[in-house]
Amino acid sequence: MTPDFLAGIRFADFTWAGAGPFSTKIFSDFGAEVLKIEGVARPDPVRVGGPFKDGVFGINRSGYFASRNTGKKSVAINMKNPDSRETLYAIIRQSDIVSNNFGPGAMERLGLGYDDLVRIKPDLIYLSMPMYGEDGPLAGMTGVGMTISAVTGLMAATGYEGEGPLGPGTHFPDHAANPYHAAFAVMAALRHRRATGRGMKIDLSQVESTINCMGLAVVEAAATGREQPRLGNRSPHHAPHGVFPCAGEDSWCAITVLDDRHWQDLCAVMGDEALAADPALKTEAGRLDSVDRVEAAVSAWTRGLSAEAVMAACQARGVPAGVVSTSRRLMQDDPQLRHRDYWQVVDHPEIGPARFTAPPFRLDGERIDLKRPPLIGEHTDSVLADLLGYSPERIASLRATGVLE
Known about the structure:
By secondary structure, the protein is of the alpha/beta class. The protein folds into two domains: 10-213 and 342-400, Crotonobetainyl-coa:carnitine coa-transferase, domain 1 (Rossmann fold); 241-329, formyl-coa transferase, domain 3 (2-Layer Sandwich), CATH 3.30.1540. The protein contains 18 helices and eleven strands. The chain has helices spanning 19-29, 63-68, 85-93, 106-109, 114-118, 145-151, 172-196, 206-211, 216-224, 260-270, 273-277, 284-289, 291-302, 307-316, 327-332, 335-339, 380-386, 392-400; strands at residues 10-13, 33-38, 73-76, 97-100, 125-128, 200-203, 241-245, 252-256, 321-323, 343-348, 352-357. It has a six-stranded parallel β-sheet with strand order 3-2-1-4-5-6. It has a three-stranded antiparallel β-sheet with strand order 7-8-9, with helices on one face. The chain has a two-stranded antiparallel sheet with strand order 10-11. A hairpin with a 3-residue loop joins strand 10 and strand 11 (352-357). The chain is elongated and about 85 Å long. The two termini are 34 Å apart.
């Protein structure tokens, strides 16, 4: 499916790195025109941060950049050149949304703050995504995925009993919490503008956004005043609740027993009548009190089977269980993702066929067809000519003076 749900919506997109570009990619995937305003001298850091196809560096070869910028158009402008303002303002006048995820004051120093732009585009929707929001005692802090994970409590809630905090293993705020919250806010602002004719400024704090995804840890602190302890894969409410070793190298299966019926079903799967009959383990409270013994018994069973066999046996009795997958397994061996055509291959002029994640849903049974990410500056001339009406001579002059890169 080639979607045109958002056709006619245009972004002047100044975002870079992870969270910002992912939020605008959602719109380009659904038919909006997203003009990625970027520079060659100071490129998007994920363009030069890799991972690179075949390990060969190239400003157009980053898989991370490609995955976060599908369907966009790249306009290469030196924003620090004061002569770039006229062209940038001309693009913004023809746009519906201006987006950035810089720290407070960065866009203002470039003459691209909300107060500057609303004068030339009164119904503008302006998305700003700094770490802590645009004002307050910590607003000037620099934020990336790991530091946002730290200050939001995500790292404090992750780790093993008696040990220090751990990160979530990926920059979770960049890949989930912040881009989707930002996209929802922009959609709400577009609907508001359609109803009232008025634009608005969206000040999205990435810290506040990530806290919204913290779940039970925040809810428990609010309700009881207590902090959840770090328990690794264990649960303070259920046992067994963990990841168990299976036959083979680095092979694991997650098993969750949520109630007493699950426990009896798991014992039946393991063929352990004595464990099922043990009165000390018939209740959740009893199993929590004997969690070491419970986990040892489950581990003794899982070690003799493949992770897939453990999952299948548990699922057959209604016990929640899942193989601990690797990224490679997901891409190459997962039968469900393959059946649903989740992975899309998009041809790219420099890196060749590349595999990307599709939006995690189908529409009327069809997947969204992703369009390829842009080469840096690939659309500069066409955007200036077609959107702004610049002549070839004017474009050449802007390039000669260093406005265009």
